[in-house]
Specification:
Radius of gyration: 19 Å
CATH architecture of one domain: Up-down Bundle
Strand content: under 5%
CATH superfamily of one domain: Phosphatidic acid phosphatase type 2/haloperoxidase
Distance between the termini: 55 Å
Largest sheet: none
CATH topology of one domain: Vanadium-containing Chloroperoxidase, domain 1
CATH class of one domain: Mainly Alpha
Shape: globular
Length: about 300
């Protein structure tokens, strides 16, 4: 029997300060009504992802334990619904366009989980040796944000597009011949392991909603836009494109991407209440702006974007 969703109020545990009220208002406004109706599926008959013993990190910016995202996210579209059919049609159309316009290589490259993929929108200086500490900070924050998609993934067990329809082409990290390490990482996270490729592939196929990749990319976009608001428009557009690449490789539906962006918004709001994050962000911002030859004091985000 499928687990019954609780009606309790979402709880935030262990946060230094509650996120701004606008976060919860935003969630209520942007969750599409067409997403409601799906019920969680029973957990798949595969072992729980196993993490090797490792000492806990000295500090974190955000933890999945701080907020129950299974209570905040709308359910994915119900199987067989009009919304689900639109989701699948969008994946097939994205793949058709990518084939005809030679965009598949770009989407495959976007499977890399690194904020360095945003260098083109930023105008350079993100993957060079002088800004390596900035990229380390961004990737750490984005990885922690993406980890918050894990609980709702395990709750909904939504099939990925390629697992739902054989017409969907499988590329990049969801390709049938993807390395075992890539398959396990996609299914269980960066430091986890499963007993075999087969079990990892089965677990990965049920991890569509929300998109951890879209969460990762949206955290990159938000933080970079806060550092360099002069490029805010370009960075958020690149974040949308980074998520769209997941349609092209057959890994996610559009509704998965929308949910991932919500997860990222909540994650960054929680990070901003963390003193260590505030310190590290300020240092990274100063280093990046200096590398880009920009004034130390960034303009406010209300100012027009510089093109």
């Amino acid at each position: 029997m499928a687990p019954v969703r609780s009606t309790r109020t979402p709880s935030v545990r262990g946060a230094p300060a509650p996120p701004p009220v606008w976060v919860w208002v935003l969630l209520a406004l942007i969750v599409p009504a067409t997403a409601f109706g799906q019920t969680p599926t029973a957990p798949p008959a595969v072992p729980v992802c196993m993490s090797p013993a490792a000492p806990p990190a000295a500090s974190t910016y955000v933890s999945p334990k701080q907020v129950d995202l299974t209570e905040l996210l709308a359910p994915p579209p119900a199987a067989g619904s009009a919304a689900a059919r639109r989701d699948l049609a969008a994946v097939l159309e994205a793949q058709r366009i990518a084939r005809t316009q030679h965009l598949r290589e770009h989407a495959i490259a976007d499977a890399t989980t690194s904020c360095g993929r945003f260098e083109d929108a930023l105008g350079g200086e993100l993957t060079r040796s002088g800004t390596a500490p900035v990229l380390r900070f961004l990737n750490r924050a984005a990885q922690e944000g993406a980890a918050m998609s894990g609980a709702p993934k395990r709750y909904w067990h939504r099939k990925r597009p390629y697992a739902l329809d054989p017409r969907v082409e499988r590329l990049a990290d969801v390709a049938p011949d993807a390395p075992v390490a890539t398959t396990v990482r996609s299914a269980c996270g960066p430091n986890a392991q499963l007993p075999s490729r087969e079990l990892a592939a089965r677990a990965r196929a049920l991890g569509s909603y929300p998109s951890g990749h879209a969460t990762f990319g949206t955290v990159c976009a938000i933080l970079l836009a806060e550092m360099v608001p002069e490029k805010r428009r370009e960075l958020f557009a690149r974040g949308q494109d980074y998520g769209h690449s997941r349609l092209v490789v057959g890994a996610h539906f559009p509704s998965d991407l929308e949910a991932g962006r919500i997860v990222a918004t909540v994650a960054v709001a929680l990070m901003q209440a963390n003193a260590q994050f505030q310190h590290d962000f300020a240092e990274a911002r100063a280093q990046l702006r200096a590398a880009l030859g920009l004034p130390a004091t960034a303009p406010t985000t209300s100012q027009p974007t510089v093109h």
